[in-house]
Amino acid sequence: MGNGGTSIPDEEWERFLREAEAGAQGAPKEPSARARMVTRRLQEETGRPEGWRTHQLAPRRRGKGWYAVGLLVTVGLLTVALAPGRVAGWFGGGGAASAPLATESERPDQPPTQSAPQLPTPDEPFRGSPAAQWGDGMSGISLPAARATGWMSKEQVSQALDRSRDFLAASSLERGVLRGERPKKAIALLNPHQQDVQDYLATAFSAPSRKNDPLLLFSRLATKKVRLVGDVVKTRGRITYREGKRGAVEVTTDVTYVYPVVRAAAGSQEVARTIVRREVVMSWDDPAKVVVERGTFPLVSYKMDTSNGGCGTVTGYLTPEFSAERATKDRGDGPEFDPYDRSTSVDALMQETGETKCWTATRL
Question: I want to staple 194 with a disulfide (CB 3.0 to 4.6 A). Which of 178, 234, 298, 353 is the partner?
Fold first, then answer.
């Protein structure tokens, strides 16, 4: 699975958690997530602010509790196209040109270099995009080395990191999920005792809304309108972890996914790209202190920024637009934004939006 330590078998993981649960008769149940609403501000106070679910596009309000959810949407207006590079597949690469970038070990201090515009093609769907040099699927997501942290041993941390990566793959890269199927594997990793998340899941797929949008956690394409170009999905991001509340291992994932698509009609040749960046924070809790099913995690926060995935009506699907559609639409009501720029955190981006709903993507 991961490359950040030695994984242990599932039976060992389960045995360890059962032993921990033996002393967990009086463990507190995860408090209601809605009672813990707050949006976390970037660098506004010492330590990590606490929060739960807010649905403002530019969260600025404070509240009490742990968990937070955020959403930022950018309009797919292509004002600059750039960066030649090689093409590679999702599960396996193909094509050649510029050498791939090393995986991201820390936040970059500037956006990718701009270069002359180049249009993508079905054979080279990442042509003209910085993603041409990004990793293929999970290979574009760096995993840190495991070390004993909080209540977990080094081996347990390694297992938690692997399962955190499993969630990313099952929620944002699995083919069935991209076609709109229910993300069963990803949902199975979420702690069923976190009631607000379970309520969100129960509503998001049948009646999506800005408050309960499945895209906050899962990538789903409107396949009646578009289809992926081959098996190609490019990623860039990293996973980090630290000790959290009550000795939990808090895992933070910050990943940008690039989905190239063509129209669903047979023979379609124009390639458009949808870019999704998610920051998902997971808490691998000590079952002696928190009621949690073994092998699952509660969510601390989840935030999303999407470019050319649809802006306005919430459908529960990514709905990319092509050049003819973009040409007939007004620019976004916010400033310009480079969706390939990972030098700014999602928190900071959301603070900059004010009440803006749609930004203008400078390149796709």
Answer: 298
